[in-house]
Design brief:
The complex is a heterodimer. By secondary structure, chain A is an alpha/beta fold. Chain A has helices at about 5-10, 35-40, 95-105, and strands at about 20, 25, 45-55, 60-70, 70-80, 85, 110. The N and C termini of chain A lie far apart (about 45 Å). In chain B, strand 4 and strand 5 form a beta hairpin. The longest helix of chain B is centred in the first third of the chain and has 29 residues, at about 90-115. Classes of the chains: A alpha/beta, B alpha+beta.
Chain lengths: ~140, ~350
């Protein structure tokens, strides 16, 4: 079986890859993002970005981690419970700016990453641009 | 004794507003910190307030150079959600537009690089060459910057006179072979100025998620046109130039060779342009609930769009854009470590940065 096919079992996840709108998605009940990042890096995958999105009518932030493995676009989906999630930027340098930007857009705190302004200036409030308070 | 050199956000050594602070020992850069956000326009927020037609026009304004890349990316994502496939002629026109855009972007950059390495007349030569491509783009689309070519399910305009585009591409190829290639690939002064400067190893490039010509100049053969073909790229024959030195010279050579490959792709697409419809569905395309991803190899590298629709409203729930400079810019710090202070403008320019894209 290919590396991609083995990923769910290697990471101990309770789900399989689904092809949605032309790319592959993994949506486990719970995802250890640090284990995922270490595993993907070990297998030579290239980190692309994280798409954060506030789920409608809630304060929950969906987090889609996008990777490229030999040209295949792979996405792991999880949620930032209580607006917190583990940082992966110490395992995957490419995630540094992405985590800082998501903190600024959605006020998601990344455990293990000390916040440093990216698009905002020091002292500007975070969580205004894309975070919806009234939902 | 170490000292801090702040440059920017507005400075003659920078192409666009951003800031970098370097810690130097004498003339040697020991560390550098980058600050972005001076072009921030909140485009991802605005995208949640626009309908699907307006949002295509909005995303075209993410960048003034690779505007077509952005409309192509978002249209592909919307087509995946809607299950719509554009007609073959539209897919070929998309390839031609994407490669014309790469040509004018790379030639513009060649001019700037020429000026920075001391070949100042090359700047004017490159801009004169680029003008021919801008004229071709204007003849096709009526516009020189925002072409409005892509729509969901097709393109807005046909290429009615392929021969005139072919003539412009042939002329550019001839001029590039006479002007750009000899300087970037073989001139001793240019080699002395750029070889070994601003090195990014392939291990660093991979770890930092670097994309496009910057990655290919560090030995990574990644190109979305080849790895995950879109539009009509699967039907095109082309090479992906790769250099292994990871220095400024390698970035010069990769982009110069890519100009020739783009000419080759455009020629194939024009000669084999399928007959038939190019506009796609006339009726409004319904965008159902879901998330779709789309990747395009822009002039500076991979662009990724993530578009989420709720299937009820005519506005997207979320549009996320990851642009190539956003992926490449953090690696500039690595290129600067140990470099000479005087090389810093050339090193930062060697990734062909676009801050309009980065800040969105």
């Amino acid at each position: 079986m290919s590396i991609t096919g083995n990923i769910p079992s290697e990471l101990g996840l309770d789900c399989r890859w689904e092809t949605k709108n032309g790319s592959m998605w993994l949506t486990p009940e719970a995802l250890d993002v640090r284990r995922m990042a270490a595993f993907m890096r070990w297998h030579g995958a290239r980190f692309i970005t994280i798409t954060a999105m506030q789920l409608p009518g809630t304060q929950t932030i969906r987090m889609d981690y996008h990777w490229d493995l030999d040209g295949e676009l792979l996405t792991f989906t999880t949620q930032a419970a209580d607006n917190r999630i583990a940082a992966i930027s110490d395992l995957c340098e490419a995630a540094g700016w992405v985590e800082r930007e998501i903190h600024e857009y959605f006020a998601v705190d990344f455990d293990g990453q000390e916040y440093e302004p990216l698009l905002l200036r020091a002292g500007d409030p975070v969580g205004i641009n894309l975070h919806k308070e009234d939902e | 004794m170490s000292y801090r050199v702040p440059i920017g956000p507005y400075h003659p050594a920078l192409e666009e507003p951003y800031k970098f602070e370097m810690i130097c020992d004498g003339e040697t850069v020991r560390d550098a910190k980058l600050h972005i956000g001076f072009n921030f326009r909140g485009i991802e927020h605005l995208a949640e307030q626009r309908n699907y037609v307006q949002v295509i026009a909005l995303m075209e304004r993410v960048c003034g150079i690779c505007s077509n890349t952005h409309t192509l990316s978002i249209c592909q994502a919307l087509e995946r959600l809607a299950g719509v496939t554009p007609p073959p002629r539209a897919l070929y026109i998309r390839v031609i537009m994407a490669e014309l855009e790469r040509l004018h972007s790379h030639v513009l950059w060649a001019g700037i690089a020429g000026k920075l390495i001391g070949f100042k007349t090359m700047f004017m030569s490159c801009f004169a060459m680029r003008e021919k491509i801008m004229d071709a783009l204007e003849a096709i689309s009526g516009n020189r910057v925002n072409y409005s070519m892509n729509r969901v399910g097709g393109v807005n305009r046909d290429i009615g006179d392929p021969q005139s585009v072919l003539a412009a591409v042939n002329a550019l190829e001839r001029d590039v072979n006479h002007t750009v290639i000899p300087v970037f690939a073989a001139n001793r002064s240019a080699m002395a100025r750029c070889a070994g400067v601003g090195v990014l190893t392939s291990e660093q490039a991979k770890a930092w998620g670097v994309v496009g010509p910057t990655a290919r100049a560090s030995g990574l053969p990644q190109d979305i046109r080849r790895a995950a073909p879109y539009a009509a790229y699967a039907e095109m024959t082309f090479s992906v130039p790769v250099e292994t030195a990871g220095d400024v010279r390698a970035r010069l050579v990769v982009r110069a060779l890519e100009i020739l490959e783009s000419c080759r792709i455009i020629r194939q697409a024009l000669m084999n342009l399928p007959a038939g419809d190019w506009r796609g569905p006339e009726e409004e395309v319904e965008i159902p609930k879901g998330t779709a991803l789309s990747r395009v190899e822009g002039p500076r590298g991979e662009v990724l769009y993530s578009v989420t629709a709720d299937g009820e409203n005519d506005t997207p729930q979320r549009v996320h854009v990851r642009t190539p400079t956003y992926a490449n810019m953090p690696s500039v710090r690595l290129m600067l470590l140990g470099a000479q202070l005087a090389d810093a403008p050339l090193i930062q320019a060697s990734i062909d940065p676009c801050y309009s894209c980065t800040d969105r």
